[in-house]
Amino acid sequence: MTYVGKKPADIIATAVDTTTGTFSGDLTVDTNTLYVDSANNRVGVGTVSPTRQLQVSNASNAIVSVLNGSKEGVLNATTNNINIGSASNDYLTLSTNGTERIRIDTSGRVGIGTGDTAIGDRMLRIHHSSSQKGIILVENNASMSLSGVANFGGQIDASSLKFVGDSNTERMRIDSSGNLLVGTTDTNPTTGTSEGIVLGVGGIMLASNTSDAAIALNRTTTDGDIAVFKKNGTAVGSIGADDGDLYIGTGVTGLQFFNAGNRIIPFNTDTGNLSDNTTDLGDPTFRFKDLYLSGGAYLGGTGSANFLDDYEEGNHQATITPTGGGTASLPSTADNMAYTKVGRLVTVTGDIRTNGVSSPSGNSRISLPFVIADLLDLGERGGGVMAVWNGSSFTQQIYTFSGGNSYFDVLILPTATLEFRFNLSYFTSA
User: Fold this and answer.
1) What is the pLDDT of residues 379-389, one digit of tens each?
2) Where do the structural domains in the chain lie, given as residue ranges?
3) How far apart are CA 144 and CA 366, in angstroms?
4) pTM, two decimal places
């Protein structure tokens, strides 16, 4: 073969120092299979204009392979993305300072801070060596953050996002409707015996607890509203605290539950003060039904004279006794008197008849349902109307009340045909 100029061997011999093995100048192999840019200390594979110290170029898929036996790691750039990974059936790790920080196993599960990715059906495991430190931090430029701690995980299925803790135990979920469920999988735990909290779509809050209060509200330092209830943005009522006691109401109409005094008192929720003589119980059109009291009621004032401690209605089965001896009897069809007792005042109404006597003498003594009060003024002991049928006509009869007794005397001798009609009132000491 005939050469014009220097032979290739002479060119190589000129560029390569045969003593040190050093090559000087640029190197091109097969156009762009390998190119060495000696001026910029760059190497190009597939390119004659590398812009990095080592650059691999391919029009559709540039691949760098690192091979150790059957284990191969690759870095490749396609027309759509950049990939780094394992071409063999091996996990991929990322390390700093010689320590593994992230691992992706052959199933695609990711471990951060741990090489143990055996975490059931969860795809991400984040681990910190200290149980007291947060392991997730999400923040913006204002330094607002959300952090999680150890033993926390999330699961997403077809219907909900679940948050789980130790032993894969579910702690919280957001279901497909957007409801937040804490400690329960029931969207309405208040209808059964389960525990949990639900913040429901539409603004509903539900809470259920097996052995403790389902809701605890706390106001510190000052008295005032603890809970405010609104309709269309306007307050319609509140529950609060005043001097250690609870109040409930709306505006000027409220009640305070006074624990030390064991009583309920009218309260003005607008001013936060007790109120007097301003609140009615019931309405002329909308009334309460029955009132059950074991004590009395102060009517029209607060003095002892305003105290009504008793009201009673009933029937008294009367007896008649001759005051001087003998006996007298009443039939079961005509031996009852009706009575009404208001406070100490007793009113009795009756129509009783004798049907037999035995050696009677003296006056007719008729029993009463309550003891007569022993008052200083005899006129206060009673009064009313008494008429007696003697077999042929009615006559007005004199009768007497005597304090301390549970009877009154009619000044007429008992016979077998007497009829006593009366409406009487007296004061009792009972």
Assistant:
1) 666 788 899 99
2) 8-57, 92-150, 160-208, 217-289, 311-427
3) 92
4) 0.60
